Amino acid sequence: MAKSISKKPIPKAVPNIENTSTMSGVFQYLLQKETIGWVIFAIAVLVYLNTIGHEYTQDDAIVITDNMFTTKGLSGISGILSNDTFFGFFKEAGKQNLVSGGRYRPFTLILFAIEYQIFGKNPFIGHLFNILYFALSCFLIYHLLWRVLSQKLDVNPVAIVSFVAALIFAIHPIHTEVVANSKGRDEIMALLLSLTAIWCLLNYYDNSKILWLILGGVSYFFALMSKENAITFLAIFPLILYFFYDKSISQSIVKSSVMWVCAAVFLVIRFRILGASLAAPSGTELMNNPFIKIVNGQYMPFTTGEKFATILYTWGLYLKLLIFPHPLTHDYYPRHVDMMTFGNPKVLISILIFLGLIFVAYRSFMDKKPMGFAILFFLLTFSIVSNLLFPIGTNMSERFMYMPSVGFALGIGLLFSYLWKRKINQSLILGLLMIIFLGFSFKTISRNTVWVSNSSLFLTDVKTSVNSAKLQNAAGGTLWDLSVLEKDSVKRKEMWAEAKIHLNKALEIHPNYKEAHLLMGNVLYAENNFKMALAHYDGALKIDANYKDAIRNKGFVYRDYARYLGEKEGNLAGSLQMLLEAQKIIPDDFEVNRLFGIAYGMQGNTVEAIRYFEKATKIEPKNATAFLNLQIAYKQAGRIQEANEALQKAFQLDPTLKPK
Q1: How many whole angstroms separate alpha carbon 575 and alpha carbon 582?
Q2: How far apart are CA 503 and CA 478, in angstroms?
Q3: DSSP state, residue 64
Q4: Quick check: is 15 in a domain?
Q5: Contact 330, 461 (CB under 8 A)
Q6: Do residues 375 and 411 lie in contact, with contact meaning Cβ atoms separated by under 8 Å?
Q7: Gap between the Cα atoms of 227 and 96, Å rounded
Q8: Is 558 helix (H, G, I), strand (E, B) or coil?
Q9: Does one domain contain both 627 and 545?
Q10: Is the pLDDT at 410 greater than 50, yes or no?
Q11: Which helix (H) or strand (E) holds 82?
Q12: Quick one: residue 556, left, alpha or beta (phi over 0 = left, psi -120 to 50 = alpha)?
């Protein structure tokens, strides 16, 4: 039977306070542990309350709206459990492997499926639960920090550190990508359930009730099923025992063995579903591999120095965003983060900072100081998304700081406690905390508004991620989609012009971007610039010869180019040539066959005209105009009886038609 690992009881609120300064009232309030916990919860809810009416955005389509398993509700759960997380979106074997190592995160998709079953397609529900789960995480962080820190520190610093750390985590703007985006549920649940597992396991070691051990193991298993980065907590729990409960390293590992068992079970399931490969897919697609460059018109991998210099630079950028979270963007794809070398001062500064953190962590590890735990928490949870151990398919992302930021927040809390203990002007310290609170809260609330819709998100962030090919493409695509709905022809043309600017930038950064070629072709097609539209569709097909959208759209361009040549230029020969090209791609398109009939009719070739008009009526048997055209061709061929029958059919379908 396990014995208690507690060093001393968790302190309760106490009236007598060491510090009898005018700031003692602050301590009196901070020591009301239960009250402060709910204050943290309320603050977390309030700063994200303005997301509750937002639309689905970004990757929500992958896990919710366009996922064939999620949208089935409860009946889709078996499909969720037996496939890669992205398979339900791609619906095609192999495509989910475009992301490195695959994704197996069924628990959050199951939550979405349950919500879909009960509430249908309702983004309000997704945002509401994200807010509540996030607020609960902040609540738990506060109480968990109070619990473990009380084993090491006196009551006053425990109160300060727990409050400041939980508050920083609750209001930090870098979390907006996770909380304001429904898909961020995987990050939220991975952390919430990992922290719950720690709480349950500490309860088990305190009172030896097996129920707590079971609950802890189940919580951790579902954390892993939410997102794989929860695997880093295999190191976090032993560290808690080592730093705060005076256990040796070997004892700490043994006492956390249940977490290893849960992780092993998860990995067996994951490998059985996805296979054992964790490597990035090979190839030269910049959107899946940020560590390639263009040399003499060819895509080549970064040198080892360029790759690691770029990775280390992003580490420093993460720290900068934790300290000063501006500007924020959801997109750090190439080349928002440019290729770096070790000769770049920013890379060297980043290296020095992280070497300093590692040195402090080492010294603190030996002395079992809480700051060492904070740094190690940050480094360990960051390691799996750092691009050092595993490729993540992009340079960086703000959501990857969600879990590591607990360590950062704890470090800030410890720093404030240190300053307070040193009796530095306490009013100044409180003022600084208030500035951080107001500044972070304002930034979070204002940043939330950007996540209201895809159009808002893309068209806002493209001003920050100017050199991101992916975001330039997304902005161009958004403007194209909006133009389709725009009724004002002047505004529509303005949207096309702006879309082309973004798409040209995307192609400048990434010439082999097939989606950008496709969208550029669409815009040029809408402008009746048929030749250039075809050139861009051909550009997409040079990259992917089986690109279905580009193939289909080429057919439409040929068709409408044929109409233009015939109607605007009277070029029947050119029109027929374009129709023949269209026919190869979309042979059963109604308009292609109708135009063939008209062109041949104008040439006096009634036999061919009738053949195509007859096919048109079979394609759209309820189209009155098709039968009227057929009636004219029959009449020209002297087939009067059939002409009358066709005319009668046209009148049956549309009595308002006038015979020609």
Answers
A1: 10
A2: 11
A3: I
A4: no
A5: yes
A6: yes
A7: 16
A8: helix
A9: no
A10: yes
A11: none
A12: alpha
Alpha-carbon span 265 to 406, nearest angstrom: 27
| In a shared domain, residues 597 and 567 | no
508-552 tens-digit pLDDT: 999 999 999 999 999 999 999 999 999 999 999 999 999 999 999
At 606 the three-state DSSP class reads helix
Same domain, 513 and 604: no
Vertex 30 angle, CA 25 and 34, to 5°? 135
State the residue for tokens 């039968």.
627
Tokens of 193: 């359930």
Percent of the residues in the chain that have a pLDDT greater than 90, as a whole number: 86
| Helices and strands, counts by H and E, the chain | 30, 2
Cβ 349 vs Cβ 464: under 8 Å: no
Cis ω on the peptide bond leading into residue 327 (within 30° of 0)? Answer: yes
Question: Rounded CA gap, 607 and 596, in Å?
Answer: 12
For residue 540, what are the domain limits? Answer: 468-586
In a domain, 390, yes or no: yes
Sole residue written with tokens 């063995």: 257
Distance set, CA 603 to CA 576, 608, 638, 646 (Å): 11, 10, 16, 22
Q: Would 189 be classed as within a structural domain?
A: yes
Amino acid at the residue 648? Q
How many CB atoms within 10 Å of residue 365? 17
Same domain, 73 and 183: yes
CA distance 506 to 501: 9
B/e letters for 461-478, b = 16+ CB within 10 Å, e = fewer, are bbebbeebbbbbbbbbbb
Q: Quick one: 209 and 97 in the same domain?
A: yes
Q: Mark whether 520 and 378 lie in a shared domain.
A: no
- Per-residue pLDDT at 234 exceeds 50: yes
Task: Indicate if 194 and 307 belong to the same structural domain.
Answer: yes
At residue 327, what are phi and psi to the nearest 5 degrees? -80, 155
**9-36 pLDDT, tens digit each:** 444 444 333 443 445 555 566 678 889 9
Count of domains forming the chain:
3
CA atoms within 13 A on the CB side of 573: 0
Residue 22 pLDDT: 44
CATH number at residue 531: 1.25.40.10
Of 586, 614, 629, the one marking the end of a domain is: 586
Q: Tokens for 464?
A: 């920050």
225 alpha-carbon distance from chain centroid: 18
Sequence-distant (6+) residues with CB within 8 A of 291 are: 301, 302, 306, 307, 310
Instruction: Please give the pLDDT value at position 12.
Output: 46
Return the ∠ at Cα 461 (arms to 332 and 338), rounded to 5°.
30
- Given 412, 447, 482, the domain boundary residue is 447
Does residue 458 belong to any structural domain of this protein? no
Residue 384 class from Cβ within 10 Å (0-12 exposed, 13-18 middle, 19+ buried)? buried
What radius of gyration do the chain's Cα atoms show?
Answer: 31
Q: Residue 292 pairs with which residues in a beta bridge?
A: 301
Same domain, yes or no: 531 and 438: no
Torsion of CA 435, 441, 443, 448, to 10 degrees: 180
